[in-house]
Amino acid sequence: MATNIDLDMVMQPAEVALANMEQVLDRTADSVDGADYLPAGMKLGLMAMVAAGKANVDGARLMKQEVADYAKASIDANISAAKASMTAKSLDDAVSVQRDHLQAVMHGGMAESGKLAEMALAISEKAAAPLRKQMGTQMEGPWTAWFKAAA
Asked: Residue 48: which of 114, 129, 145, 136 has the closest Cα?
């Protein structure tokens, strides 16, 4: 069963916010790229931050779509359960339909929560990669020397 709910309309404010963030990141990248007065290391660090921001925006879009898909499936399941309850032949049948639906909602919600947590972790890892790489490059020399001297 498909719902007539326009989840794209519901998600539109989130997409506008993500598009605005993307625009800011693009403008920042353009500004940093053209800023000849900045030291090279600072430019690389700022570009790593822009890359991390873009990875977060891309990840937020994926999560937004996942939440929208889950919401639509949940609404469909709720409508189906309500119809089945209303057409049940007995009170016991109606209670059974509701019990089964509640169990499915709980299991589905827990599974979806786990999926979203895994997505968030993967997005965080992807966003951290350019920062980790740049920090490792910038800090490797001084910190390596310091650790060797301290050892």
From this structure: 129
